[in-house]
Sequence to fold (339 residues):
Amino acid sequence: MIKFAIIGQGHIGKRHAEMVRRNPGAELVAVCDVLSKSQTGNAEIKESYYQSVDELLNQHADVDVVSVCTPNGLHAAHALKVLEASKHVVMEKPMALLKSDCENIIYKALQNHRQVFCVMQNRYSPPAVWVKDVVDKKIIGEVFMVQLNCYWNRDERYYKNGGWKGTQHLDGGTLFTQFSHWIDLLYWLFGDIKNIQAKFQDFNHENLTEFEDSGFISFDFVNGGMGSINYSTAVWDKNLESSITIIGSKGSVKIGGQYMDEVEYCHIQDYILPKLDATAPANDYGAYKGSANNHHFLIQNVIDTLSGKTTITTNALEGLKVVDMIERIYSIRKSDRKS
Fold:
């Protein structure tokens, strides 16, 4: 039985808690948030509840792994505390807001012989698993071009006054909070990028965030081929799409839908698209929706890895690379939120 604790009880922290409770190979021992049980809507939970990370770690030496589900800018500090207490750590995306912080986390994990699991649950979606196979086995041939489109709505229903979302130091930017999952898929499928060019714009978030809401990014893949990312959270009312189009020497593929959850086009030489399992629905937060609801796969991977049955689906070095790619993209961004 793998014993879990969870730091942070916002939407995603509660998702982690529920997935741990449902798994017969796991036990949720404690949760933590700076807010009280009633303020987080946890008045009825049976697990131990703390408002201090230090107190949780001091009181529960038996905990095996801790999920860090706090605001982005706090991920690194909380992960380091967990690792210093000799616990394994599950890190919600992004791993951190700086590559250097990711390096510190990896160093501390190595020092203490502990594992770091990065949350990139979209890798488990059937279309993502399928296209990984198509690319890795060169079924699509040499990759010429890749286009990633991410068009979501994030308005005043999401960015609450006085909250951490929208702040530079705790949120970090649209690519970190909304679209790091999709940048992870780019890296997972095609590897690192170079020769980055970008243009950013803030269309309708001037009074809601401290950063851009939209951007065009172009680059070359280190492994060959070129790519682009077009993204925005300025879409009116609801999310429009998250899609990826791949042009290869032997065919073309497009995975689309609001959350990259369906194969919209597949035309590959001497190839028939197999029947894929249904994709899990998006995380539904009422006024807005997020990425795929695949956290049960993540929790199972943690249990299986710590039980010696498998390896980490998204390891710390991969988490670092996503942060590194976003950091290099954002290095082009000017202080006036436009470039």
